């Protein structure tokens, strides 16, 4: 999962600082997610999925399908 976060960020040519700012947190805190040192809270997973336009299942490596689900 953690490599997927980094790949998504790098594919969009974003820095950890930019993503951390979007999440309203420090770069250091965000970097802990990318290296797998800290678990990612659900609210942050939701924001990241929305930010990158992918499903949470994709972020969690449950599927390789990037397309998010339709909202109910």
What's a concise summary of this model?
The chain has a single domain, classed as Orthogonal Bundle (434 Repressor (Amino-terminal Domain)).
* Discrete helix count: 5
Strand content: under 5%
Helix percentage range: 55-70%
Would you report the number of β strands?
0
The general outline is globular
Largest beta-sheet details? none
CATH homologous superfamily label? lambda repressor-like DNA-binding domains
CATH topology: 434 Repressor (Amino-terminal Domain)
- Overall structural domain count: 1
So, CATH architecture?
Answer: Orthogonal Bundle
Low-confidence stretches: none
**Topology order in helix (H) and strand (E) letters:** HHHHH
CATH class: Mainly Alpha
User: Average pLDDT value?
Assistant: 92
Structural class by helix and strand composition: mainly alpha
Alpha carbon gyration radius: 11 Å
How far apart the termini lie comes to: 26 Å
Helices and strands, with pairings:
Blueprint: H1 2-11, H2 16-22, H3 27-34, H4 42-52, H5 56-59
């Amino acid at each position: 999962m953690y490599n997927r976060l980094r790949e998504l960020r790098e594919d969009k040519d974003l820095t950890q600082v930019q993503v951390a700012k979007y999440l309203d947190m420090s770069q250091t805190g965000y970097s802990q997610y990318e290296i797998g040192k800290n678990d990612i809270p659900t609210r942050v997973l939701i924001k990241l999925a929305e930010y990158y336009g992918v499903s949470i299942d994709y972020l969690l490596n449950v599927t390789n399908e990037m397309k998010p689900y339709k909202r109910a």
